[in-house]
Design brief:
Layout: H1 10-32, H2 42-49, E1 55-56, H3 57-64, H4 68-80, E2 84-89, E3 92-100, H5 102-126, H6 128-151
Length: 152
């Protein structure tokens, strides 16, 4: 039996670390002053950060791996509190785009700043090079799965 047969496997380790990061994010959100925003709303903010022009609800749901109904509920909550807006889709009059408002972009910038602080804390624990290697590896895995999905 190799030493790799003891302890949690990769998937469990990623989940355990992600849980701790989520706990830190939830605590930051609670203290941040951004009222009505919950950790689940990251499913909206994360994909919209890279799409300032907005994205369709179905695209957001697919990207975040949740149902269209769940995404719609999250977007409704954020729209009510001024973090996102719905606009007509210029490519399809029947559809709309969800886009971050200035208030939403302010929150997203603050969340990214918090994420950089957490990454710096992690780098202090295990070394900056290891954190950068981990980030690069995770990006490569994500991209390979995205490429695989496109081929289907």
């Amino acid at each position: 039996m190799s030493s790799h047969d003891h302890g949690p496997r990769l998937g469990a380790l990623v989940r355990l670390v992600a849980q701790r990061l989520s706990e830190k994010y939830a605590a930051w959100l609670e203290a941040s002053g951004f009222e009505h925003v919950q950790p689940a709303h990251a499913a909206v903010f994360q994909p919209l950060w890279d799409k300032p022009e907005g994205a369709r609800l179905t695209t957001l749901a697919r990207t975040s791996r949740i149902t269209k109904q769940s995404m719609s509920a999250l977007v409704d909550q954020l729209e009510t509190h001024g973090y996102v807006e719905r606009l007509p889709d210029p490519e399809d009059a029947r559809a709309s785009l969800v886009r971050l408002t200035p208030r939403g972009r302010t929150l997203a910038r603050a969340a990214r700043s918090f994420a950089r602080e957490v990454e710096a804390e992690l780098a202090e624990r295990v070394g900056a090079r290891r954190i950068e290697d981990l980030r690069t590896t995770l990006l490569m895995l994500r991209q390979s799965w995205l490429d695989e999905e496109k081929e289907k």
